UniProtKB/TrEMBL annotation:
Keyword Oxidoreductase: yes
Coiled coil: none
Keywords: FAD, Flavoprotein, Oxidoreductase
Annotated ranges, domain FAD-binding PCMH-type: 40-209
Name the UniProt record assigns to this protein: FAD/FMN-containing dehydrogenase
Pfam family, one: FAD_binding_4
Family: Belongs to the oxygen-dependent FAD-linked oxidoreductase family.
Cofactor(s) in the UniProt record: FAD
Recorded GO MF terms: FAD binding; oxidoreductase activity
PANTHER family to which the protein is assigned, alphabetical: BINDING OXIDOREDUCTASE, PUTATIVE (AFU_ORTHOLOGUE AFUA_1G17690)-RELATED (PTHR42973), FAD-BINDING PCMH-TYPE DOMAIN-CONTAINING PROTEIN (PTHR42973:SF39)
InterPro entries from the UniProt entry: BBE (IPR012951), FAD-bd_PCMH (IPR016166), FAD-bd_PCMH-like_sf (IPR036318), FAD-bd_PCMH_sub1 (IPR016167), FAD-bd_PCMH_sub2 (IPR016169), FAD-linked_Oxidoreductase (IPR050416), Oxid_FAD_bind_N (IPR006094)
């Protein structure tokens, strides 16, 4: 009998019904199946199921229900909330992606990464509303809203583009959920993340986008005040075909970085324009002239290079992070931020970024979904990297950054940016992230589909 009250015979019986891998602590393959992007969110489940099919997912969920254990999922571990004593379902094998070119849709396996989606969609001349990092799971991103550095302001949140969801709910039943079949569940799962079941596949709309004008320009950190003040007035006036963010970064001495950026204090100014490259260059020109440029990586690019706008670290990475939505970004807010992250501050964080939202992100899709950040013009996201000894300082500094901009806080948060590791993930924070109206509706829907709160190893929305 294991410490979680499961005997070997029960695990063996589960293994006999599953075509993928089943492993308990100490078994071969257990550690590999449980490995996460962030070592500060380790997974210590009672048993892990490396699901090879929707049937495997259903078997794992039924097993969890029978043994009174929570269910956790893992694709990359970018945002997992721990799985102590849970049945962990590793979804990485469910990575099949197919494209219907005529319908302009893709069916994405529940464990596919954006890189695996893009490998199929870009040759077809189509693009999804993907996120900044190709190594992030597409389904995790789409279930949490999904802010795209290229297409969001034109086409909305990633969740707005989801047409159907194949999901196994707490009763172990597989359902194909659409706006017509289960309107409440379809509302909830597009924004409510993993609270309502395990998604084995979903179908998204694609867009005829093959190129973009964009990338990142880096300037020395000493110019952060000039650049951030210029950006805060320029960004909100952009056309919807343009997207931008700005990040104050203390980069590591990583040999993979080009010389002027290695170990440097810089500001990364990101930009993407969907349309004619000459027009993109014209739109970007005011920022190109705002401060002396160290590295200019903004140019006409094939869509396959979308990951080079942010060049997010592929990991694994020991980090802590925090986020806040902002309802406004006046000069005082930029000054308050610069007082903690600007030149001469000794800021210990690797990156503090501001993304400008707006455009289609503000428009309610039809049918509506649980994305709660419509009308929020900016989001701030910061993270620090270090060993356990550095954590108190990093956490404290992230808290100070959030406090500094709190007079301009929006109140809502992007579900995808909620921290997995510390105070950014409390029940109060999750409620505030969605706002009372959406949160209470999600709790009621949870009561219907998961009354026992089987899916609680996440940013949990308990049933009510
Ligand atoms: C470097 C980096 C860049 C990012 N850039 C963006 C960005 O540009 N825009 C944006 O919106 N977000 C972004 N994110 C946030 C990212 O979208 C979330 O962390 C997302 O949850 C990652 O999903 P995952 O499957 O990779 O992670 P995991 O940690 O494996 O999953 C996280 C959670 O998602 C849920 N989940 C995932 N898959 C399923 C499934 N199949 N069924 C049910 N629940 C599931 C579960 O609740 C799970 O605990 C970024 C994150 C990182 C680390």
């Amino acid at each position: 009998m294991s410490e979680h009250g499961i005997d070997e015979a029960a695990v063996a019986a589960l293994a006999a019904t599953v075509t993928g891998l089943v492993a308990a602590p100490g078994d071969a393959g257990f550690d590999e199946e449980c490995a996460t992007y962030n070592p500060y969110t380790p997974m210590r489940p009672a048993v892990v199921v490396g699901a090879a099919s929707g049937r495997d997912v259903a078997a794992a969920i039924r097993f969890a229900g029978e043994h009174g254990l929570p269910v956790a999922t893992l694709t990359t571990g970018h945002q997992v909330r721990g799985a102590d004593g849970a049945v962990l379902i590793n979804l990485r094998r469910l990575n099949r992606v197919t494209v219907d070119v005529d319908a302009r849709t893709a069916r994405i396996g529940g464990g596919a990464l954006w890189s695996e989606v893009l490998a199929v969609t870009t040759p077809a001349g189509l693009a999804p509303v993907n996120g900044s990092a190709p190594h992030v799971g597409a389904t995790g991103y789409l279930l949490g809203g999904g802010h795209s550095p290229t297409l969001g302001r034109l086409y909305g949140y990633g969740a707005d583009t989801v047409r159907s969801v194949e999901i196994v709910t707490a009763d172990g039943n597989a359902r194909r959920v659409t706006a017509d079949s289960d309107p409440d569940l379809f509302f909830a799962v597009r924004g409510g993340k993993g609270n309502f079941g395990v998604v084995t596949a979903l179908e998204v709309e694609l867009f005829p986008v093959t190129r973009f004008y964009g990338g990142a320009v880096f300037v020395a950190g000493e110019h952060a005040p000039t650049l951030l003040h210029a950006w805060r007035t320029w960004a909100p006036a952009l056309p919807e075909s343009a997207t931008t963010s700005v990040a104050v970064q203390r980069l590591p001495p990583d040999p993979a970085l080009p010389e002027p950026l290695r170990g440097a204090f810089v500001v990364a100014l990101r930009f993407a324009f969907i349309g004619d490259a000459a027009e993109g260059e014209r739109v970007f020109a005011p920022m190109r002239g705002a401060a002396p440029i160290l590295v200019d990586g903004v140019r006409d690019r094939p869509y396959a290079e979308v990951g080079l706008i942010h060049t997010d670290p592929p990991g694994p990475l020991p980090y802590v992070d925090r986020t806040t939505g902002l309802r406004d970004l006046p000069a005082e807010a930029v000054d308050a931020l610069l007082a903690l992250v600007g030149p001469g501050t000794g800021c210990p964080l690797v990156s503090v970024e501001l993304r400008a939202l707006g455009g289609a992100l503000d428009r309610r899709p039809e049918p509506p979904n649980a994305v709660a950040t419509r009308g929020m013009p900016f989001v701030l996201f910061g993270f620090g990297v270090g060993g356990p000894e550095a954590l108190p300082q990093l956490r404290g500094y992230l808290g100070r950054v959030l406090d500094a901009v709190s007079p301009w806080a929006h109140g809502r948060q992007m579900a995808n940016f909620l921290s997995a590791v510390d105070e950014g993930a409390t029940p109060a924070e999750v409620r505030a992230a969605y706002g009372d109206e959406i949160y209470d509706r999600l709790s009621k829907i949870k009561q219907v589909y998961d009354p026992g709160n089987l899916f609680r190893a996440n940013h949990n929305i308990p049933p009510a």
